[in-house]
Amino acid sequence: MLVESLERKHGSPMPTTPYLAPILMLLASNVFMTFAWYGHLKFGAKPLWIVVLVSWGIAFFEYWLAVPANRIGHQVYSAAELKTMQEVITLLVFAVFSVLYLGEKLTVNHLIGFSLIAGGAFFIFKGPL
Asked: Which stretches are transmembrane (predicted)?
């Protein structure tokens, strides 16, 4: 759906790589960043300075994915579209992470909030009204 919409926007079929690669790279980078920011919550007894250094080390790899993803993606997406993608991907990755890794439950309130954000993303990609 997204690629078809972009093809209509740009007037011709475009190679899939600049469309798909940034999405996959942002997905992978968000897995790293989610572990960097929240993975330590299962290890509350570890000294904070160790947690910060380990998190920083994990985030290093996140940057190696996020920065190229944005550079590649900017060939076909606007900066606002890339940022919107990033936020939606972040929420999806975090929702899975919080349930599977942290053992937390998603509530109806979470789902409503995430849905409202997804609605905002729809308007970013829809184009002018």
From this structure: 20-41, 47-65, 85-102, 108-125
Max CA pair span of the chain: 56
In the numeric block, which tokens belong to residue 58? 């994990």
pLDDT tens for each residue of the chain, 129 residues long? 455 555 555 555 555 788 999 999 999 999 999 999 999 999 889 999 999 999 999 999 999 999 999 999 999 999 999 999 999 999 999 999 999 999 999 999 999 998 999 898 888 888 788
On the 0-12 / 13-18 / 19+ scale of CB atoms within 10 A, 122 is: exposed
Q: CA–CA separation, 23 vs 29, rounded Å?
A: 10
Query: CA-CA distances (angstroms) from residue 69 to 9, 77, 124, 126?
Result: 21, 11, 19, 21
Q: What share of the chain is helix, strand, coil (3-state, %, to 5)?
A: 80, 0, 20
Nearest to 81, CA basis, from 17, 18, 37: 18
CA angle 30, 31, 36 (to 5 degrees): 90
**Is the pTM of the predicted complex or chain greater than 0.85?**
no
